[in-house]
Amino acid sequence: AQSVTQPDIHITVSEGASLELRCNYSYGATPYLFWYVQSPGQGLQLLLKYFSGDTLVQGIKGFEAEFKRSQSSFNLRKPSVHWSDAAEYFCAVGPSGGGADGLTFGKGTHLIIQP
Amino acid sequence: ETGVTQTPRHLVMGMTNKKSLKCEQHLGHNAMYWYKQSAKKPLELMFVYSLEERVENNSVPSRFSPECPNSSHLFLHLHTLQPEDSALYLCASSQEAPLLNTGELFFGEGSRLTVL
User: Fold this and answer.
1) How far apart are CA B21 and CA B77, in angstroms?
2) How far, in Å, CA of A20 to CA of A65, rounded?
């Protein structure tokens, strides 16, 4: 069965500093990988996704993520965070080539931005 | 205006009540989903509908009953719930299921349910 691990429950970063959120997945085939963000009181919004091709993908709000097959990782990065980036971040893995499932999500990483 | 609208945003109910959550998507999508979000747990997929036909039911207790009358509307009927059912219930839609193309889920803001 597929699974997603986000090892950091909380991360605190100073405004303007760089950010990396970790995500490891377990999946038998080539996965579809996603990062979603959830602001307080809101639903989830897609930041970026990886299906195939270039392993470094660019997303919205200045985020990027790199797919590393050898490490089963899909870490999210941002070179300089803004206070508005404070939110819950979810990594997710999806079926490739079949299945009616939705996505399997990690438990999320809560990002706190210090002034 | 969000593409996926959920009502009510907050609901408090007793264990003997019957209530329903409503979801409406304005995106022309063909698939709709119910997820449960509990504190400190991953999002749990509950139900998937594709073209109004249920295609996934992840061992959800029968006290949760979904209904999809058309591709734009999705309901979750609740009856005789337990306090552990208190959670944020998120509705989502996608262009189609399975997620072969864009793979993007569009979420509503959720319905916060409290069972007393």
Assistant:
1) 6
2) 9
Question: Using one digit for the tens of pLDDT, what is the confidence trace for B13-39?
Answer: 988 889 999 999 999 998 899 999 998
Provide the residue type at A101 as one letter.
D
State the burial class of residue A35 (Cβ atoms within 10 Å of its Cβ: 0-12, 13-18, 19+): buried
B32: alpha, beta or left, given left = phi > 0 and alpha = psi -120 to 50? beta
DSSP assigned state of A83: G
The Cα A42–Cα A47 span in angstroms is: 14
d(CA B22, CA B75): 5
As to burial, measured by CB atoms within 10 angstroms (0-12 exposed, 13-18 middle, 19+ buried), residue B75 is middle
pLDDT classification of A98: cutoffs 50, 70, 90: very low
Residue B77's CB: how many other CB atoms inside 10 A?
Answer: 13
Q: Does A107 touch chain B (CB under 8 A)?
A: yes
Nearest Cα residue to B35 out of B96, B94, B102, B100: B94
Task: Among A27, A50, A101, pick the best mutation site for testing chain B contact (most B Cβ within 10 A).
Answer: A101
Test mutation, B57, B105, B111, B112, chain A, max A CBs within 10 A: B105
Say how far apart CA B52 and CA B73 lie, in whole Å. 9
What is chain B's mean pLDDT, rounded?
A: 89
Give burial (CB, 10 Å; 0-12/13-18/19+) of A70: exposed
**pLDDT tens column, A34-73:** 999 999 888 899 999 998 888 999 999 999 999 999 999 9
